[in-house]
Design goal:
Layout lengths: L1 E2 L12 H10 L5 H18 L6 E3 L6 H9 L4 H5 L4 H10 L1 E3 L2 E3 L4 E3 L6 E3 L2 E2 L9 H11 L5 E6 L1 H7 L1 E2 L4 H18 L4 E4 L9 H13 L7 E4 L9 H6 L4 E5 L6 H8 L6 E7 L9 H11 L8 E5 L26 H15 L8 H14 L5 H8 L12 H12 L16 H11 L5 H22 L16 H4 L2 E5 L6 E4 L2 E3 L3 E8 L5 H9 L6 E5 L1 H6 L2 E2 L5 H21 L4 E5 L14 H16 L7 E6 L8 H6 L4 E4 L7 H4 L4 H4 L1 E4 L12 H12 L20 H23 L1
Parallel strand pairs: 1-14, 2-8, 7-9, 8-10, 10-11, 11-12, 12-13, 13-14, 18-20, 19-21, 21-22, 22-23, 23-24
Antiparallel strand pairs: 3-4, 5-6, 15-18, 16-17
Helix pairs in contact: 1-2, 2-6, 15-22, 17-18, 22-23, 27-28
The structure holds ligand 39S and zinc ion.
Enzyme class: transferase
GO molecular function, one term: 5-methyltetrahydropteroyltriglutamate-homocysteine S-methyltransferase activity
Function: Catalyzes the transfer of a methyl group from 5-methyltetrahydrofolate to homocysteine resulting in methionine formation.
Length: 748
């Protein structure tokens, strides 16, 4: 059997691409140099995939949706006509651009299905030029020249349309133009092309099915070189039509796609087509169980000739780090972890075993069985299990309802109307990162490290007071990341040294591994937050990361239920929250940034997930006294379709991302804000662009047309950690100015 992977990481084994991008943006290297670096990285990737029969070319300078927009000509007139260079335009749409006469807002981002990767959302509008930017075709062609067994990877038209924002263009018009753009592009790309269509794993209506089929029937003249790739689930709504489409091959996910095997067994698979058979997980890092994988493969192989089966990863390996080389894991999971390079090796081994009749006797198979049996025989923490089984309904409910809590809180806090706050983190400067590195590498003593962090906290408090912000934060300087930091204190979780995964653009995280029963061993945030509160009479809000976010931004064990893991974390957080409460902290924020992200793609699975997610949140927070204010923060969250779940969190104040997305998000929060407080972000922190006070004022006015003034908070749309200090302070200053102006108009 032949081998490939669906996609590969892009950030560089040692984050070379991240670093190159950042020095390019700082103006320290030229366009030629950054493009040369792209080629170098791609060559390194070919080297890492050299043992595979076919390799994907899915590199993107910033994001694959954005890159495809340039290839298709889905570009706003303003940008295309600007005097910026090709790369200048590209990064302007990625990050925003502001200079004298040109002011380009970044396109919004959206979570790529249920992952922590953010893709750019292209905008299709009457201003779209539909003129492809061939520069990007050329740069990509230079990447692929040297490799004959490669296929280009781009999002297919159905998924592209589904993730785009389409404004004021009649349906038939954008559909026809988009299709024409794909025609033009496919004509220009030589050789095989993989069209990624993960949107097929959502529930599909008949109209959506028709649209999808019409797209592909129209592309039939390229069918000989097209692979239609799906992942993140199964294709139950479209399988029969899908496999009959005029394409060379189809990619299916057999890890998350629970129904894909039975679809093949029920409807067969056209034997003349290739099946890209995703059997090694791409979203998780646990070693593949060869016995299970090979038995699945055996069942598939009775439907089509072996030479048409290409073993692959279930989805792109973009979502896992490069390699476990140089890492050390706790004994329980030693030998149980595979990152991208190890997964490539797994795929090769499975292909080898898959071609042997008595694979059970092969040493590779036996070694795998041994490692898997060790991985599945993990010890349980009996105390933790006892606590879980002792839970009752009252553990999930605060003492008073929100209508009675908010007035009590307002009395204690005595805040101005339209209170201003931030989401938690302040800029993480190069000096701070150096400091942390010094501490980790034992160059700095714990005492010096803590002193330095406290200096930063003190200066952060002072800055916020000077800016006139009402509810302060300590700045999260002690945290490298909002999940990794907590993981480093929790038993049952472990962190990696170099396990970087791209989150968006040049931004990366090191997802921890959640492998055992989780318990709190010591307090995690109390020292920093109480120190910050000791410096000011204004309330300092304590910030913690919630259970679902800890889970979704980690590589989570799969041997126990989501509910059990979530409740374990909730209990650990609850201990922390109780301690903060005892130390007279008056506001506590539990971030559930990933609540929406983890929502299952199929609606039939929503309710049971949301019950778990919201119960875990309440379990963590229910012992708060009524007068202690509970905040939660979420980003990239389209709440329109899950209003009951947001309500079920029973938070007092909700701060959300809203500034890049349009006002329909707010409309959906009209009901929520009748009873609870809400702070829809008034500007976009993911862009270095500094919004003017007038711009923010206008946005707040819009908010006031939907949200009662007594329930509205004013804040940025997410944490400030990725911004430079100058950008963050200038924006906050404008935010406070705008608020003060509105207060004056309303109340004097
Ligand atoms: N896990 C997670 N997911 C999330 C978010 C989040 O905050 N966390 N936010 C949303 C948006 N995503 C984001 C993801 C990452 C970053 C981010 O800022 N990442 C940093 C890395 C953060 C980090 O862990 N930094 C470490 C390590 C820093 C480092 O690179 N150190 C240098 C040395 C330092 C130096 O000399 O400058 C090195 O090891 O080479 C630290 O600060 O300690 C980056 O890519 O630059 C921001 C937003 C959604 N998903
Ligand atoms: Zn956020």
């Amino acid at each position: 059997m032949k081998t490939t992977v669906t996609g590969f990481p892009r950030i560089g084994k040692n984050r070379e691409w991240k670093k190159a991008l950042e020095i390019f943006w700082a103006g320290k290297i030229s366009e030629e140099e950054i493009l040369q670096e792209a080629q170098n990285i791609q060559q390194q990737h070919f080297g890492m995939m050299k043992d595979l029969d076919f390799v994907p070319i899915d590199f993107a300078l910033y994001d694959h949706m954005l890159e495809t927009s340039f290839l298709l000509g889905v570009l706003p007139d303003q940008v295309q006509k600007s005097s910026l260079s090709h790369l200048g335009k590209y990064f302007a749409l990625a990050r925003g651009f502001q200079e004298k006469s040109v002011d380009i807002k970044a396109w919004p981002m959206k979570k790529w299905f249920s992952t922590n990767y953010h893709c750019v959302r292209p905008k299709i509008s009457p201003e779209t030029t539909w003129e492809a930017d061939l520069f990007f075709l050329e740069y990509k062609s230079t990447l692929v020249k040297q490799n004959p067994n490669r296929r280009w990877v781009i999002p297919g038209p159905y998924t592209f349309a589904r993730l785009s924002i389409i404004e004021d263009v009649p349906e038939h018009e954008w559909q026809q133009k988009l299709l024409q753009a794909y025609h033009n592009l496919l004509k220009r790309i030589p050789g095989d092309v993989q069209l990624d269509e993960p949107a097929l794993v959502f529930d599909m209506t008949n109209r959506e099915k028709e649209l999808f089929l019409a797209f592909y029937e129209s592309l039939s003249s390229y069918g000989e070189r097209l692979f239609l790739q799906t992942y993140f689930g199964d294709v139950r709504d479209i399988y029969e039509e899908l496999v009959q489409l005029p394409v060379k091959g189809i990619g299916l996910d057999f890890v998350e796609g629970s129904e894909n095997l039975s679809l093949i067994e029920k409807f067969g698979f056209p034997p003349e087509k290739m099946l890209l058979c995703g059997i090694v997980a791409g979203k998780n890092v646990w070693r593949t169980n060869y016995e299970k994988a090979l038995s699945l493969l055996g069942r598939i192989a009775s439907y089509l000739p072996r030479e048409n089966i290409v073993l692959s990863s279930a989805c792109s390996l973009l979502h896992v780090p490069y390699t476990i080389e140089g890492e050390s894991f706790p004994e329980e999971i030693e030998n149980g972890v595979c990152f991208a390079l190890e997964k490539v090796e797994e795929i090769r081994q499975l292909a080898l075993l898959g071609d042997i009749l008595h694979y059970q006797d092969h040493p590779i198979f036996q070694k795998n069985r041994e490692m898997i049996s060790k991985l599945t025989a993990r010890d349980r923490d009996s105390l933790c299990l006892q606590k879980l089984s002792a839970l009752s309904e009252k553990d999930f409910q605060r003492a008073l309802p929100v209508e009675q809590r908010l007035p009590l809180q307002k009395e204690v806090l005595n805040l101005a109307p339209l209170p201003t706050t931030t989401i938690g983190s302040f800029p993480q400067t190069p000096e701070l990162r150096k400091l942390r590195k010094g501490f980790q590498e034992n160059v700095l003593s714990e005492e010096t490290y803590k002193q330095e962090i406290k200096k930063m906290i003190a200066s952060c408090i002072k800055t916020q007071e000077e800016l006139g912000i009402d509810v302060l934060v300590h700045g999260e300087y002690e945290r490298n990341d909002m999940v990794e930091y907590f993981a480093s204190f929790l038993k049952g979780m472990t962190t990696t040294k170099n396990g970087w995964v791209q989150s968006y653009g040049s931004r990366t995280t090191k997802p921890p591994l959640l492998y055992g029963d989780v318990t709190r061993v010591s307090s995690m945030t109390v020292e920093w937050i109480t120190y910050a509160q000791s410096l000011t009479t204004k309330p300092v809000k304590a910030i913690l990361t919630g259970p679902i976010t800890i889970i979704n931004w980690s590589f989570c064990r799969e041997d126990i239920s989501l509910k059990e893991v979530a409740y374990q974390i909730a209990l650990a957080l609850r201990e922390e929250i109780e301690e903060l409460q005892q130390k007279n902290i008056r506001i506590i924020q539990v971030d559930e940034a990933a609540l929406r992200e983890r929502l299952p793609l199929r609606k039939s699975e929503w309710q049971s997930y949301l019950d778990i997610a919201t119960s875990a949140f309440r379990l963590a927070t229910s012992t708060l006294l009524p007068e202690i204010q509970l905040h939660t923060h979420m980003c990239y969250s389209e709440f329109k379709d899950i209003p009951e779940a947001i309500e079920a969190l029973d938070a007092d104040v909700l701060t959300i991302e809203a500034s890049r997305s349009e006002l329909d998000v707010l409309e959906s929060l009209r009901t929520y804000s009748q009873k609870r407080d809400i702070g829809p972000g008034v500007y976009d922190i993911h862009s270095p662009r500094v919004p003017s006070a007038e711009e923010i004022e206008t946005f707040i006015q819009k908010l006031l047309s939907v949200i009662p003034v007594e329930h509205l908070w004013i804040n940025p749309d997410c944490g400030l950690k990725t911004r430079k200090e100058s950008e963050a302070y200038a924006s906050l200053q404008h935010m406070v100015e705008a608020t003060q102006k509105i207060r004056k108009n309303l109340f004097s």
